[in-house]
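B., you asked whether I could sanity-check this one before it goes into the benchmark set. Here's the sequence:
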Amino acid sequence: METRMSEGAHVEGMAEQENYSSRVLLHFFRHEEKGKDPDKTNEEQLLTERGKLRALAKGKSGRAALTSVAFGSDLPRAQETAGFVLAGANGAPDVTGTESLDELRAKLDKEREMGTVIGSDPRLGFTYNDPKYREIADGAYDESHGLEYMARESDALAEELHDKKSTTYSRAAGNVASVLEKYMRVGRNYDKLIQDPSKKDEYGSVLERFLGSHMGVVDLFLTKLVDKVKGTAEQDKLIAALNKQGFSYQEGFDVVIDTIPGQDEPLVRLKYEKKDDEGKELFSFNEVIPKDILRQLIEEGKIKE
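And here's what the prediction gave me:
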């Protein structure tokens, strides 16, 4: 049960207003299937061969990508996933789904004069600092109620252990919210750029990003956002729809950031839906996100010294 790339074809209709001067499309998703190499830590695990092929297929299953770049967390498997999804969406003919991250990056960057199309953003990742914190958090995931535990208990656990570095409910939500805030700024700058007709002809009016992350990061952000926007009852419904555990491989949500002529702030809308194997809707969220809520999430996620 995943948020399929084909849903991206409908993302144009997500915003309430269609008279935008420019648009940023963000696709957040958990990485694909990771390996189980006994000689590697969890952080070191890369995508399996099947995971690479599934990520490439996800990109191919939707419409062609627009002016696009991929970002993953600082863990390679998230960058691999985002890169293969981007390659599929861009129709990169020489990407087979068997490449290492370095090989994939080289193929996607060969037409670029500078920079790379696969970047990293540690805010999309996670950190375990205190061994006791990691033991308890991992134990909750091992018992298949990781999301529920992290949402209800992780902030208090970190405070109890005086752990100022590990990823918690509020810290994960704040990090992802800060990524959205970044792209609100990016959207404004992009809008200024394409006011030049020659630049608009070259780049188009839509900027697109593929953002690979992890269970225990993007799903925690969504869980806290739902609570802020729609209340605890809806949050409980989301946690139940995710079987108390979190996003499955490739599952995620889309965000549209529209710059509207005459409006000071861009319009930010997030869309997520969860269906069962028979197509029955388990949960749906399609809401405009006020800037002050993003700021609340960011502030609540800051480490208190």
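One thing to flag: Confidence is low (pLDDT under 50) at residues 1-16. Otherwise nothing jumped out at me.
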